[in-house]
């Protein structure tokens, strides 16, 4: 098959690495890709949100199957346009992608179909939102309704902080149209985890669990980022809890979306809060997480492309997902200054030495080839992943690889998986 992958991050590099290994994949293309993806796929300089050019490319290159990595083209309707042009693609339609594109859409779905989630209010005017905050008290959570690149959520520990977040979103319009509305949620306590399901419109199968590290600083301090590291599987999600999550959150969502006229096909990513063995939905994403994808796929024993095709064809009920009996951990290396202003154009060296140890992969995110050198051109730049028998071994292996990389202009957290080790001790 000729396969097209859309996107340019470390998630897409992990997807490219996984799909390229499938005997079903004869030729892999990626648009726009990055320096790491260019080593295993033919890249095309088409932005991931350029719907018209992506459709034209798929037709011209006789693409048999498209996998969409990031959320923006899904929310903008890339799947709809590809299907109109008779190109096979896995992902939700524009209508179904509202699960990620609008937090209010997801909250209303939860209300209609009895899916456990935090209590909330929806607002378009700052003063009404602030009045609600004062009624509810703090801590409380303020979220821009639309896509905000992982930066539209404030977990406010005081009413003043929450009101400032309201002004940032509704008055300053920091997120543009994505912040025309906001959601104010009850603050849930417990431990966060990521749960992934592959869905064909009717059937859903679990596609692994992980735990992410959103805060930029060690000990989960500082501002939120797109993710500074992850590990898989999530120890807090036991086999019994996995079954309960499928029964109380994932299946009701799949059935509810179909009943409401928005049948969902693709990757369903549930961000969960778990307390006392019970899970509540924090939010949905409609694609693989980043950096969660980088720890899920090295553990996957099954042929990823075969599973994705089964979901696209509606034959997931016959599919079997097999995993390696190992743990995986990813350390994200980011440019100094991230998630604030950061400099671009610094050289990265010794990447091949970092991968010399078996069971280590360096997935590229914000990288580019310039004059035969790998250059940093983004905020999150590399995802260094290791797989081993235990989480501790995977952690040690990943940090050994990180230390081999010569990049003075980057930084990383040194405590990925600290919660897992704290819980054990």
SSE blueprint:
Blueprint: E1 2-7, H1 10-20, E2 27-32, E3 42-43, H2 51-60, E4 65-68, H3 71-76, H4 78-84, E5 89-90, H5 98-101, H6 103-113, E6 120-123, H7 126-136, E7 140-144, E8 153-156, H8 159-171, E9 182-186, E10 191-200, E11 204-212, E12 215-217, E13 221-224, E14 229-232, H9 239-259, E15 265-275, E16 278-285, H10 293-296, H11 304-313, E17 327-335, E18 346-348, H12 351-354, E19 360-364, E20 367-370, E21 373-376, E22 380-388, H13 391-404, E23 410-411, H14 418-424
Parallel strand pairs: 1-2, 1-4, 2-3, 4-5
Antiparallel strand pairs: 6-9, 7-8, 7-9, 10-11, 10-15, 11-14, 12-13, 14-17, 15-16, 17-22, 17-23, 18-21, 19-22, 20-21
Helix pairs in contact: 6-9, 7-8
């Amino acid at each position: 098959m000729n396969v097209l992958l859309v996107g340019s991050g470390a998630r897409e590099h992990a997807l490219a690495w996984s799909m390229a290994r499938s005997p079903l994949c004869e030729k892999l293309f990626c648009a726009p890709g990055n320096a790491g993806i260019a080593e295993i796929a033919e890249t095309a300089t088409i932005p991931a949100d350029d719907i018209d050019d992506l459709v034209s490319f798929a037709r011209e290159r006789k693409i048999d199957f498209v996998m969409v990595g990031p959320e923006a083209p899904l929310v903008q309707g890339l799947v709809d346009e590809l299907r109109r042009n008779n190109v096979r693609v896995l992902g939700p339609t524009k209508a179904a992608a509202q699960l990620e594109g609008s937090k209010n859409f997801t909250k209303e779905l939860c209300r209609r179909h009895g899916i456990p989630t935090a209590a909330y209010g929806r607002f378009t005017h700052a003063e009404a939102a602030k009045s609600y905050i004062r009624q509810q008290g703090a801590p409380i959570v303020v979220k821009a309704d639309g896509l905000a690149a992982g930066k539209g959520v404030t977990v406010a520990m005081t009413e003043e902080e929450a009101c400032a977040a309201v002004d940032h979103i509704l008055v300053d319009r920091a997120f543009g149209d994505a912040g025309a509305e906001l959601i104010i949620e009850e603050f849930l306590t417990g431990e966060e985890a990521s749960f992934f399901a592959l869905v064909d419109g009717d059937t859903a199968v679990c596609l692994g669990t992980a735990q992410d590290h959103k805060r930029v600083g060690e000990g989960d301090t500082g501002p939120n980022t797109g993710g500074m590291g992850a590990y898989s599987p999530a120890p807090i999600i036991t086999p019994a809890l996995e079954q309960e999550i499928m029964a109380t959150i994932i299946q009701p969502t799949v059935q509810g979306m179909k009943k409401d006229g928005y049948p969902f096909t693709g990757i369903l990513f549930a961000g969960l809060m778990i307390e006392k063995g019970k899970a509540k939905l924090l939010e949905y994403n409609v694609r693989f997480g980043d950096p969660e994808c980088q720890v899920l796929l090295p553990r996957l024993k099954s042929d990823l492309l075969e599973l994705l095709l089964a979901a696209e064809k509606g034959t997931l009920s016959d599919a079997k997902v097999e995993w390696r009996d190992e743990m995986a951990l990813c350390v994200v290396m980011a440019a100094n200054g991230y998630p604030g202003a950061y400099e671009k154009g610094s050289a990265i060296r010794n990447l091949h030495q970092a991968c010399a140890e078996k069971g280590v992969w360096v997935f590229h995110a914000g990288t580019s080839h310039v004059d035969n050198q790998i250059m940093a051109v983004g905020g999150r730049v590399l995802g260094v992943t290791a797989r081993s028998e235990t989480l501790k071994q995977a952690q040690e292996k990943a940090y050994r690889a990180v230390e081999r990389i010569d990049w003075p202009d980057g930084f990383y957290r040194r405590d990925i998986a600290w919660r897992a080790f704290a819980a054990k001790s």
